[in-house]
Amino acid sequence: MLADDHDLVIEGFKKLLEPEFEIVGTVSDGQALLIKAPELKPDVVILDLGMPLLNGMDAGEELKRRLPQAKLIVLTMSEDYDLATQALHNWASGYLLKKSAGSELVKAVREVLKGVSYVTPKVAQHLLQEWIRDPRPNREKHLTPRQREVMQLVAEGRSMKEISNILQISERTVAFHKYRVMEEYGIKTNLELVKFAIREGIVIDESAFRPLRRHGS
Predict the structure, then answer these.
(1) What CA–CA distance (Å, rounded) separates 118 from 88?
(2) Model pTM?
(3) 44-47 and 26-27 strand pairing
(4) In CATH, which of 1.10.8.100, 2.70.70.10, 3.40.50.1820, 1.10.10.10 is domain 145-208?
(5) Quick one: which of 53, 137, 188 has its CA closest to 196?
(6) Residue 103 and which of 14, 87, 172, 176 are 20 to 30 A apart at CA?
């Protein structure tokens, strides 16, 4: 199964994989991934980190809880090694950069199906160096999964009503989560909230999202 919000990327990955593997489905956002993957029960899920509605980091972690037998491979443009560490430590079986997908993607799928983790060499070398310097586990999360969902959607410029419909919760609950986070972290404006979301890794690829609205947030 493929999860990426760019149609051309999806088509390119399908061409690489279809000669050897069956593509059971594709989705373009993290919320759709959590809905469709449990229905389709894929052996392998290849997902981007910078997806709208729910980023790939949070979607991957939740999907691993729902489908523990599935192998999850990150395929991203991001060379943020902290993200790689977090994904591999918590739920991912593989981590690749999109620029090397042409030569590595099929190999990565083969390896994870054998039960072997696959990390693109550039990232693997850096992670090994970091582990040698400091082998302690990655930092703990501070926000709840629901707070992270709300923060991402607010940062995307979604209105309270839109967020309520997407998450199937009341607008009052949306507002509670938003303002609780803003109060706890001393955030005064929506612009500060967007910066906070980027800093916390909730919004992973700024270019994937719509501009912040001026009204209705």
Answers:
(1) 10
(2) 0.66
(3) unpaired
(4) 1.10.10.10
(5) 188
(6) 87
